[in-house]
Design brief:
This protein is mainly α. The chain is about 65% helix and about 0% strand. It is built from 12 helices and no strands. Helix 2 runs antiparallel to helix 3 (about 60-75). The protein is elongated, with a radius of gyration of 18 Å.
């Protein structure tokens, strides 16, 4: 209890720190909760930034304490808020806290939040960094990156098909997970899938991950073909 209260105090101090502004940014960004006031939006932005700042310092416990503050502040007056959860997922990912990342994803599903590719990739990254590659690959091969229980709990209108299309980072993490599991052939298959995806402009990360996967298996010729 003493440790938990200390983490909470340290976490709340991050809300006031000057380095927090803009610390948590996401591609596309989670939507603001509907019907929120200007004051609530300001508090939300500060909390999300503070969770992001804690995450960059790998202070995942502080990030989760701030997430609990966010739940207390906002969930009683409206639907569960994706933004703080997404920032907390990123914090767990940076700290390799894969089990807590998966728990957060499960919680988001149960609360019927919109689970986007950023949230999925953060959970996959946490598993990959902690060498829990089978779980990372299971998330990827589920297509929608659905956590356990997703089908039972999701009923949102914003994701009609239930499918999230991977981006270049999602592919990179999946290929990296293959490398850790010595599945270099699967890594190359995933790279080919990414190359054939007309929606993507692949960056260097998926190629680098595939080369690393081949290198770990001493498949030098295959690594050169990726180049």
């Amino acid at each position: 209890m003493k440790r938990a209260s200390t983490n909470a105090r340290q976490a709340r101090g991050l809300v006031r720190c000057r380095g927090c502004r803009g610390a948590a940014t996401f591609s596309g960004g989670p939507p603001e909760p509907a019907g929120s006031t200007a004051e609530q939006r300001s508090k939300r932005q500060r909390l999300v930034a503070a969770i992001g700042a804690a995450g960059k310092q790998r202070r995942w416990e502080a990030a989760l304490a701030l997430l609990q503050d966010a739940k207390t502040l906002f969930n009683a007056s409206g639907p569960p808020d994706q933004g703080p959860h997404q920032a907390a997922l990123d914090a767990c990912s940076r700290a390799m806290e894969w089990a807590r990342a998966m728990t957060l994803l499960e919680e988001m599903a149960k609360s019927k939040m919109f689970i986007d590719k950023i949230s999925c990739t953060s959970a996959m990254t946490a598993c990959d960094r902690a060498s829990r590659w089978p779980i990372a690959l299971k998330l990827f091969t589920s297509l929608a990156c659905r956590p356990p229980g997703y089908e039972r709990h999701w009923a949102g209108p914003r994701q009609n098909s239930g499918v999230l299309h991977p981006d270049h980072m999602t592919y990179s993490v999946a290929i990296s997970a293959c490398g850790k599991g010595s599945h270099w052939t699967v890594a190359l298959e995933i790279l080919k899938e990414a190359q054939s995806d007309s929606r993507l402009r692949l960056r260097q990360e998926p190629y680098g991950a595939a080369i690393t996967a081949c290198g770990k298996a001493q498949r030098w010729a295959d690594a050169l073909e990726v180049l």
